[in-house]
Specification:
By secondary structure, this protein is of the alpha/beta class. Helix content is about 55%, strand content about 10%. Bound molecules: guanosine-5'-diphosphate (GDP).
């Protein structure tokens, strides 16, 4: 399904030109590295990656390139692909993070974000995911009494996909709806409640105040921001604003199937400290995927086979060193240098 992530194509194309340069270099020295890193820096900035994130990226990668011992069976260019891949994975969040569902049921998920970011659609997709992949029963609840037909939209999504939503009672306030939902699940036994909240076209005081009130009333275990990846750096600053008010526990990026720059995905974790847990790749109910930083890094670089090759070479080197140490121990020539080399290997 990763093939649908059109959003990253631009970045892939830009980074390829930096790697074309690296492929030609013969040594991992500062002069050669600088020129290639300049190209990577440019690719990241042109892809709308935040300046602070780009700077940190280059600062972290540079010392790993310079003076690094090139493994026997790979080229300097291939080593660099692996170093960049590792840093990209780290920037994207390292490991996939699960939803926070380890709590006495019903677990409450509060879905927040700007209007049009894909909140309602994502709420329904999330329900689908929780039922199909985690085998838990859930209830969908719309707290959006402002946008005409927003509650109806969620109800229709639920009905069309044979999912359960809280019946609409006209005239109720969001807080009243939230209380009614909690009461309903204490009778019908759903393990998870997904609350879709009202958004605005931009952050405003009233929306934030209402969110804070709902947050206090609901006491959610998972606070998920839905952010439109097409809006690039705006998505990142919006996430930061929400995070200040209610500590987000996750971000879902939508519209990764659209032709954009991909910078939001790369900057989000680093800027907000909050993990991306899901990607939305279309309008259909099952077009929600767990965000795996390593797979995304692979998708961006498009060089999975090179990464595997270098990992294999690193593993071969470790095995070779172990054999050398065994030999040295046998012959009684294990020196402080051997010990240092072992420590380096372990690191
Ligand atoms: P809300 O106002 O935040 O609740 O946004 P909606 O859930 O109503 O979504 C707005 C529009 O974006 C709808 O037409 C959705 O079908 C569409 N949409 C949501 N997520 C995605 C996505 O990942 N990809 C694409 N292409 N469209 C999406």
């Amino acid at each position: 399904m990763l093939g649908y992530l059109i959003m990253f194509d631009n970045l892939t194309n830009k980074i390829e030109s930096a790697f074309a340069y690296f492929n030609k270099i013969t040594r991992l020295d500062e002069k050669q590295a600088d020129e290639g890193l300049r190209k990577i820096r440019q690719a990241l900035l042109e892809s709308d990656v935040a300046l602070s994130v780009t700077k940190k990226f280059i600062e972290n990668v540079k010392p790993k390139i310079i003076g690094k011992e090139v493994l026997k069976s790979v080229t300097p260019g291939q080593m660099i692909v692996k170093i960049v891949y590792d840093e990209l994975t780290k920037t994207l969040g390292d490991k996939a993070k699960d939803l926070n569902l380890n709590h006495v049921p019903p677990v409450k998920i509060l879905v927040v974000g700007l209007q049009g970011s894909g909140k309602t659609t994502t709420s329904a997709k999330l329900g689908h995911f929780i039922e199909k992949k985690l085998s838990k029963k859930f209830l969908l609840v719309s707290l959006d009494i402002y946008r005409p037909a927003a509650q109806k939209q969620l109800e229709v999504l639920a009905t069309n996909n044979k999912m359960k939503s809280l019946p609409i009672v006209e005239g109720q306030l969001p807080i009243e709806i939230a209380k009614r939902a909690k009461n309903a699940t204490s009778i019908s036994g759903e393990e998870v409640i997904i609350f879709d909240t009202a958004g605005r076209t931009q952050i405003d005081q009233q929306m934030m105040m209402e969110l804070k009130m709902l947050y206090n009333e609901i006491n959610p275990q998972e606070i998920m921001l839905v952010a439109d990846s097409l809006t690039g750096q705006d998505a990142v600053s919006i996430a930061s604003e929400f995070n200040k008010l209610i500590n987000l526990t996750s971000i879902t990026l939508t519209r990764l199937d659209a032709d954009g720059k991909g910078g939001a995905a790369l900057s989000m974790k680093s800027v907000t400290g909050c993990p991306i847990k899901f990607l939305a790749t279309g309008e259909k109910i099952d077009q929600l995927e767990i965000f795996h930083p390593d797979r995304i890094a692979n998708r961006i670089l498009g060089m999975g086979d090179v990464v595997t090759l270098v990992e294999k070479a690193q593993q071969d080197l470790s095995e070779e060193k172990i054999k050398e140490t065994e030999e040295e121990l046998k012959q009684g020539i294990f020196t402080m240098n051997s010990y240092l080399s072992q420590l380096r290997q372990m690191k």
